[in-house]
Specification:
By secondary structure, the protein is mostly helical. It has helices spanning about 10-20, 45-55, 65-85, 90-115, 120-135, 150-155; strands spanning about 25-30, 160-165. It has a two-stranded antiparallel sheet with strand order 1-2.
Length: about 170
Amino acid sequence: MSSSIKGGAKMAAHLKTFQENLGKKKTVKVGFFENATYPDGTSVPMVAATQEFGSPVQNIPARPFMRPAFEENHEQWGKAISGVLKTSNGSMEGALKAAGGAAAEDIRKAIQAVHEPGLAVSTIKARLRDWEETGAFEKDADLQKPLIRTGHMLNSVSYQVEDDDGS
């Protein structure tokens, strides 16, 4: 019994790319990175964590968005990796970029979906004062919508594909 592989140069190129990528471990990180800050220097990851888990000391209730985004979508992210691997000559980096982009978008959607717990009356009044003084957000924006005041946190959701050093 004999077997043969057809494909010539295309097959050779595919195998070479696959072999080059074989020893390179990559990982994708999704969320808020330490270089993300508000214009006043406040850390976006710190604000996001405070919103995700709450801060009893600051009287801020938990408004989870990262965990629900993961729970509802992580299987689709795996499928995105698999799908891209099948269509991109085995490019793990391309597959992780596709999954990272999908995960970041799902987190943004989860932020937009949070409506409870509602904002404190004092927060709504502060938002209105802020708008009147600075115009820092659109007047027609929902003053009672949690997690979105200026959209800065929403727009700071990102992803990075990095070499996986095992840490």
